[in-house]
Known about the structure:
The protein has about 325 residues and is an alpha/beta fold. Helix content is about 25%, strand content about 30%.
Amino acid sequence: MRGYFKNKTKLHCDTYAPLLEVRNLSLFFRQYQRGLHETTRQILHQLNFTIEKGEIMAIVGASGSGKSLLANAILGLLPENSKVEGSMRFMGVELTDGNLDQLRGKHIALIPQSINALDPLMKTGKQIYRGKCINHERRNIYDKLHLAREVSEYYPFELSGGMARRVLAATAMIGTAELIIADEPTPGLDPDSLNEMIKSIQELSSGGKGIIFITHDIETAIKIANKVAVLYGGRIVEITNSINFEGNGERLLHPYTKALWHALPQNGFVPLQGHQPYADEITSGCIFHPRCPISTEQCKEKQPKERIIYETMVRCNYA
């Protein structure tokens, strides 16, 4: 069975293909140092993952690990000094600069991280429903996200931070997009609003939409996602089922994933010494070895390859 996206050019898609398939995705930025010497910094390193219809994948990691840049790479929202290598396919269609203009908004939607994405000169109701047919179900988005109906008459400067984030979520959640990328959508939400947003996103997933949920909050990621991808220094070190985050982390395979789990207050509040390497701190071995409790000389010299162990993808020489 085949369908297509309509615009100026027909984009044929395979409805049996994965919703999003990313293979060997790398991201580089050209920069100039003193003396106008051009250098290239690699930010993302050979990322591989797949999102199926009706699936929620959380991407977790510390600030600076490359989470938001990954979202921008998928959407084609990168600056001119960037270079992307690898392959990204949406329902079997290779994503290019040309067809992303047709896919963004209608088929791939973004819940942005910054509330500055709201138009300051437009009332929030018009921004939520812009270009969309208004029906009873879509009007209920206010109730689902704990927004009073009068909020539709507010301008963005009249919203609190939490209200603005819920409005941003609403703009993506009532659309027709098959894939929704939620970039840190939960900071500033009270517990009730957070639970309602989690419930609403899970309902979208149940309806067949795929969700990429970007966050640094592991607890929320576990609640909402089917699987969790752990990003460290621009590399995915583990992709595992969310149910594996339990107990003492025995079913987690990468030392960094275990460290994130043990850093939670209910799991011992154990700090991880050291810092995530910067993009220009190139290492020939495992990116995590300077902080790893089980690191050996092999880890300093040998870059671990992706392995599948008990349905978990992991990059570790000793997993």
